[in-house]
């Protein structure tokens, strides 16, 4: 199901609330944190449908991930990338961390602006929001 109105908020502790308007005007709130599946969000379908779709993939096997530009497929890849990218190297230089963040985002989510999804004739604005906590010595 497509929906229009949705937004998320995150507090400084990393708790996240996603508010979405469901069929019939029902407002639903999903709660999680930066370690939950709410760390990656894509426009459509609804969050509960994203969750059901993600369950159809082996999230430990990158070769089995979907490859289309659809919002649902980008959500799956984003969840995989964020779960399998390690930022714990305390000796890493900023340029290395920045490069790793960009590669992780591009793998999961980036879509060229002029590319049309053949399943619905839509193009997608690519928004990025990455939160990384670095441990400083």
From TrEMBL:
InterPro entries per the record? Ntn_hydrolases_N
Note the Gene3D superfamilies from the entry.
Penicillin V Acylase, Chain A
Q: Which domain of life is it from?
A: Bacteria
SUPFAM superfamilies given in the database record: N-terminal nucleophile aminohydrolases (Ntn hydrolases) (SSF56235)
Q: What name is this protein filed under? A: Linear amide C-N hydrolase
